[in-house]
């Protein structure tokens, strides 16, 4: 029986993680649920899963939860996420919070030698060197939840890095894959939130439309698998059936396929190295799909992807700036304060103005993260 702390329980990945846990009551139980503010979604989950600890974003929400569940221990903020992630009883931390706010809890859980199922890619983009260095030091496994990285992890299947020619990440293309750059000028928030293949949280859906999601994933793959950027490629694959591939030196290519359903990589991260039944997921019917499509990426139309490669290759604090500028710009776009194409412009400006710091420590990263958000807000004025 694995005891789980789940950060981001009310989100798209959080809810699907609980779907998986619900299927296998003999294998998993919930120690702690952490969420931000969405009590409508959270209350029924707390009733059903009866966690020992609940973590929320601020004091107001804490009081609401305490009022409803007087016997449950309620914590708040980053300190609360850290306590819930490092508690003695916890076996696995599922980090499915949105944004770099998940970084301190990830670091603390590694130091407490917890197994980590990582959906929170911003953590690896903003501080990949620190996370991976700590994971090596404390000999902790970071199991990918992101579907592309789960596919690569499965396709690598323990092979040596020297045998790898390149990693090939597939991209569905997001909501705007058939639009020209001119078309992108007038797109709205609702247009961007309408993803063809996956139902996800708002921020990652915008990231998919801007192709920044793929950029973040390239950086995530670099850190998780210790592969240089020159050996990581992206290919457009509309059907999202091949979740990603590894090409080896002998030209052999190994891929992982399945219907697009996040419960598959979520469950694999929780059961690895075993596999359990996943009855609620549709089987892949290749005869019905019949044809799969592949196209090269257009790096001019999807400038965010190019910016991500540039920031990744520069390294150091540059990816912290990339991530923070993107989080801030997407928030402004979702609030209707900037246009879709302003997102990439604001990120580019932030990258241009930044002087790279080679090996930033955790405090430096958290400071740069806050400063970058502030700067992005001020360019706007
Ligand atoms: P959602 O926006 O659906 O959910 C985000 C979760 O994080 C919510 O539970 C939210 O709480 C919580 N949260 C946000 N800010 C804070 C905060 N400051 N303190 C505490 N909790 C907070 O996101 P997704 O589930 O889509 O994505 C989560 C992560 O997984 C992201 O890093 C994303 O890139 C990654 N991912 C997602 C995929 C998907 O299919 N959705 C696929 C692959 C990766 P509340 O709403 O209650 O405020
Ligand atoms: Mg992905």
Automatic annotation (TrEMBL):
NADPH binds at residues 10-13, 36-38, 120, 122, 201. InterPro entries: DXP_reductoisomerase, DXP_reductoisomerase_C, DXP_reductoisomerase_N, DXPR_C, DXPR_C_sf, NAD(P)-bd_dom_sf. Pfam families: DXP_redisom_C, DXP_reductoisom, DXPR_C. Mn(2+) binds at residues 146, 148, 217. Pathway: Isoprenoid biosynthesis; isopentenyl diphosphate biosynthesis via DXP pathway; isopentenyl diphosphate from 1-deoxy-D-xylulose 5-phosphate: step 1/6. Residues 142-225 form the 1-deoxy-D-xylulose 5-phosphate reductoisomerase C-terminal domain. GO terms for biological process: isopentenyl diphosphate biosynthetic process, methylerythritol 4-phosphate pathway involved in terpenoid biosynthetic process. Residues 257-374 form the DXP reductoisomerase C-terminal domain. Its cofactor is Mg(2+); Mn(2+). One of its GO terms (molecular function) is isomerase activity. Belongs to the DXR family. Catalyzes the NADPH-dependent rearrangement and reduction of 1-deoxy-D-xylulose-5-phosphate (DXP) to 2-C-methyl-D-erythritol 4-phosphate (MEP). This is 1-deoxy-D-xylulose 5-phosphate reductoisomerase. It comes from Thalassobacillus cyri.
């Amino acid at each position: 029986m694995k005891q789980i702390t789940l950060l981001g329980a009310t989100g798209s990945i959080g809810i699907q993680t609980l779907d998986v846990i619900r299927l296998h009551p003999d294998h998993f139980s919930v120690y702690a649920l952490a969420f931000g503010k969405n009590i409508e979604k959270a209350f029924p989950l707390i009733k059903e899963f009866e966690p020992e600890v609940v973590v929320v974003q601020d004091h107001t929400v804490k009081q609401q939860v305490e009022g409803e569940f007087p016997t449950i221990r309620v914590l708040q903020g980053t300190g609360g996420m850290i306590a819930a992630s490092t508690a003695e009883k916890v076996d696995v931390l599922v980090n499915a919070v949105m944004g770099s706010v998940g970084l301190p809890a990830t670091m603390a859980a590694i130091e407490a030698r917890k197994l980590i199922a990582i959906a929170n890619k911003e953590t690896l983009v903003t501080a990949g060197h620190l996370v991976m260095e700590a994971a090596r030091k404390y000999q902790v496994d970071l199991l990918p939840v992101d579907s592309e990285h789960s596919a690569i992890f499965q396709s690598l299947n323990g092979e040596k890095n020297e045998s790898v020619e390149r990693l090939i990440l597939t991209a569905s293309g997001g909501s705007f894959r058939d639009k020209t750059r001119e078309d992108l000028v007038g797109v709205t928030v609702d247009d961007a939130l309408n993803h063809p293949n996956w139902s996800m949280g708002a921020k990652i859906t915008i990231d998919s439309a801007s192709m920044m999601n793929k950029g973040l994933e390239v950086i995530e793959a670099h850190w998780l698998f210790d592969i240089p950027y020159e050996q990581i490629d992206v290919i457009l694959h509309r059907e999202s059936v091949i979740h990603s591939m590894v090409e080896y030196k002998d030209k052999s290519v190994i891929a992982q396929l399945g219907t697009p359903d996040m419960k598959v990589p979520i469950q694999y991260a929780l059961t690895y190295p075993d596999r359990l039944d996943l009855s609620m997921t549709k089987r892949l019917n290749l005869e019905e799909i019949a044809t799969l499509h592949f196209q090269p990426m257009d790096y001019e139309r999807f400038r965010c992807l190019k910016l991500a490669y540039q920031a990744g290759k520069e390294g150091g604090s540059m990816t912290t700036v990339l991530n923070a500028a993107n989080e801030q710009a997407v928030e402004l776009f979702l609030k209707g304060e900037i246009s879709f194409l302003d997102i990439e412009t604001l990120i580019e400006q932030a990258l241009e103005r930044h002087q790279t710091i080679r090996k930033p420590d955790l405090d430096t990263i958290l400071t740069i993260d806050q400063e970058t958000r502030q700067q992005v807000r001020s360019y706007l004025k």
